[in-house]
């Protein structure tokens, strides 16, 4: 099936206020299921995600959101669900649920987190072809531990990579046949996790834990998919007011370091730069590699606290979630591995063999052990060669049989041969390897016998005169008057080995001399025989020398390699130290810059507030003046009005008086007229 590209799904879950929280203003508003607002005096932020879970959302609501991806593992897709967020914001609550201490979560209830719900869901689907394996691990202080087999955190495990797939050496994968069995193991593992009471959480996870369920579908082959749940340890700030012991500080440093690496990985992936993703900078990112950048359907649940004092961390979590939204992953259904059980077994066996051999290679590659191994091999080889050389010497010097043969060829009696200075004893001791040379060379004749390429043989005679004539003398008869000595004289200055036969002439009579001459002649024919042996020995010696040269060459090369490795290690170490220092400086600068900007913002806000206050004051004063003016005008108007009214009243009064007077006049006129 073709692969398809899709975004990582991102959701936000807001934790409710906990009972021990004091009242705090609501700074989080959720408009619809996809939009969240953060509003406080300093920030106004709006952001969109695949799903927002409010403070009232239930565990079931969250599971319903991830359920389709969980079920897709049955069809051969890999899936990962991971929770990220500030300490105490509800990651463990979301992923595992609460109440594991009392095994409360075995049966369905509202507190169950995503994992127990996923287990129940998967086991509720009856399918004879499907089986499950699981493992459960934690990353504590940058060390990996098997939560199911190593509760004491005694043995940390190592990450390996094979065919670009990440696996953990020594992590036990347990086959499970029922949901109950699975829950039991899960609860065992949960109890083994590293937790600690902190200021923000009574049961704070101090490790990142990863629970992996392998879904094996045997229908039409052997299809294996992986469902991972990851509960990350929460990021936490160093708290000066809360006394932290060294263990706590160490945990905090490791947690924050791995989370910041995760942030960098997310940042790099989101920016589309697939070239250099710093997966290897932490164990966490190494393990999440295939979830973030590989063939896996991934869901991130970012948990946030509703409290105003955590607003900065909440915003950082949202920034992290924003970046994760941008990541594209290419997902593909896993292919079936083989068609029948025999093939499956063969495939698995082959795979195991490959992995085993790979492991041994990786193991030796990972340190000086390879070098040690090679050095050991070479030492063994050296020892072997040394022994060969010694044996050759022993064989060569152990001439008891040869001397008997020689005696025989020389025609010397066995008794004479046996008296040859007891040669085997003589040569068997290293300290006496060199035969005694005749004390006075003047008295010896020097007869060159056969000369091999690397061997020179000489025959000495005590009698110079006699020896000078030896070439023309008659054959050497068997006689007890002669003793023959054989010795090997390694030359210090040259690789040529000098071998000297010297014959003592006991009987200095002419007959005796004749015998010696004959002996010498026979000796020369013996040389012919021995020469063949020397040629073989020569070959062997050459071989041994070549081997030694090779060993020497290899040792030199190993020294060079070791020097190179050390140099590379030193350079890498320096580079990493430099980068880390740079990174630290950068973070320090960023923090300082952030602090500076925050300070500027604060000052600006204070200035603005002061401006607004002044402006308000002026406005108030103006308003007061305006009101006073209005009141004055109104008073004037009122006064004028009253005056007007008085005037009118006066006029009315006057008019009334006038009218009254007029009427009186008229009445008087009328009376007088009537009288008149
Ligand atoms: N949605 C929720 N509803 C009710 N209680 C919650 C919710 N989320 C978290 N809590 C409670 O808040 C407390 C802290 O939650 P939890 O331990 O899950 O946080 P965390 O993010 O895993 O913290 P840490 O990173 O320190 O482990 C717990 O008592 C938990 O039960």
From TrEMBL:
The keyword Protease does not apply. GO terms for molecular function: ATP binding; microtubule binding; microtubule motor activity. One of its GO terms (cellular component) is microtubule. One of its GO terms (biological process) is microtubule-based movement. The keyword Ribosomal protein does not apply. SMART domains: KISc (SM00129). This is Kinesin motor domain-containing protein. It comes from Blepharisma stoltei. The lineage of its organism: Eukaryota, Sar, Alveolata, Ciliophora, Postciliodesmatophora.
């Amino acid at each position: 099936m073709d692969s398809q590209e899709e975004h990582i799904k991102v959701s936000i879950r807001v934790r409710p206020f906990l009972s021990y929280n004091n009242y705090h203003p609501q700074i989080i508003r959720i408009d619809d299921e996809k939009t969240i607002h953060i509003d406080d005096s300093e920030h106004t932020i709006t952001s969109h995600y695949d799903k927002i879970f409010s403070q009232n959302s239930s565990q079931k609501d969250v599971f319903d959101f991830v359920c389709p991806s969980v079920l897709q593992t049955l069809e051969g897709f890999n899936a990962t669900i991971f929770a990220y967020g500030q300490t105490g914001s509800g990651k463990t609550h979301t992923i595992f649920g609460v109440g594991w201490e009392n095994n409360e979560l075995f049966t369905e209830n509202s507190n169950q987190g995503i994992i127990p719900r996923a287990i129940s869901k998967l086991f509720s689907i009856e399918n004879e072809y499907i089986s499950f394996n699981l493992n459960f691990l934690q990353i504590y202080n940058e060390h990996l531990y098997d939560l199911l087999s190593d509760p004491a955190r005694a043995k940390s495990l190592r990450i390996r990579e094979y065919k670009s797939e990440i696996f953990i050496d020594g992590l036990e994968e347990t086959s499970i046949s029922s949901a109950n069995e699975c829950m039991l193991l899960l609860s065992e593992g949960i109890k083994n996790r590293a937790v600690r009471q902190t200021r923000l959480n009574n049961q704070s996870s101090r490790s990142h834990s990863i629970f992996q369920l392998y879904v094996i579908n045997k229908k039409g082959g052997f299809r294996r998919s992986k469902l991972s749940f990851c509960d990350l340890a929460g990021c936490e700030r160093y708290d000066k007011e809360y006394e932290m012991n060294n263990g706590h500080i160490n945990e905090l440093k490791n947690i924050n370091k791995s989370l910041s690496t995760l942030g960098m990985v997310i940042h790099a992936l989101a920016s589309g730069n697939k070239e250099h993703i710093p997966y290897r900078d932490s164990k966490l990112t190494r393990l999440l590699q295939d979830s973030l950048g590989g063939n896996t359907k991934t869901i991130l649940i970012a948990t946030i606290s509703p409290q105003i004092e955590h607003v900065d961390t909440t915003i950082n979590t949202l920034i992290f979630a924003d970046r994760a939204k941008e990541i594209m992953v290419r997902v593909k259904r896993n292919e079936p591995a083989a068609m029948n059980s025999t093939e499956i077994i063969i495939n698995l066996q082959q795979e195991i063999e490959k992995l085993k051999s790979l492991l041994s290679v990786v193991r030796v590659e990972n340190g000086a052990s390879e070098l040690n191994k090679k050095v050991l091999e070479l030492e063994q080889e050296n020892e072997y060669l040394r022994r060969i050389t010694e044996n050759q010497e022993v064989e060569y010097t152990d001439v008891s049989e040869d001397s008997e043969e020689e005696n025989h060829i020389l025609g010397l009696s066995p008794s004479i041969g046996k008296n040859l200075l007891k040669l085997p004893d003589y040569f068997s001791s290293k300290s006496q390897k060199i035969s005694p040379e005749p004390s006075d060379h003047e008295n010896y004749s020097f007869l060159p016998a056969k000369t091999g390429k690397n061997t020179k043989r000489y025959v000495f005679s005590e009698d110079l005169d006699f020896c000078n004539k030896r070439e023309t003398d008659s054959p050497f008869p068997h006689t007890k008057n002669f003793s023959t000595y054989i010795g090997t004289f390694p030359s210090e200055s040259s690789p040529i080995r000098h071998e000297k036969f010297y014959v003592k002439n006991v009987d200095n009579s002419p007959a005796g001399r004749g015998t010696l001459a004959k002996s010498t002649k026979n000796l020369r024919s013996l040389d012919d025989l021995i020469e063949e042996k020397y040629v073989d020995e020569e070959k062997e010696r050459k071989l041994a020398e070549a081997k030694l040269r090779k060993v020497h060459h290899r040792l030199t090369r190993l020294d060079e390699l070791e020097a190179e490795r050390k140099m590379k290690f030193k350079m890498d170490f320096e580079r990493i130290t430099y980068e880390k220092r740079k990174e630290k400086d950068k973070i320090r600068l960023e923090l300082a810059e952030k602090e500076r900007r925050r300070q500027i913002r604060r000052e600006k806000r204070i200035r603005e507030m002061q401006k607004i206050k002044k402006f308000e004051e002026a406005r108030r004063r103006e308003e007061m003046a305006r009101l006073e003016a209005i009141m004055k005008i109104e008073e004037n108007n009122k006064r004028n009005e009253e005056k007007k009214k008085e005037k009118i009243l006066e006029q009315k009064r006057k008019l009334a008086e006038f009218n009254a007077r007029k009427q009186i006049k008229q009445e008087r006129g009328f009376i007088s007229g009537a009288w008149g």
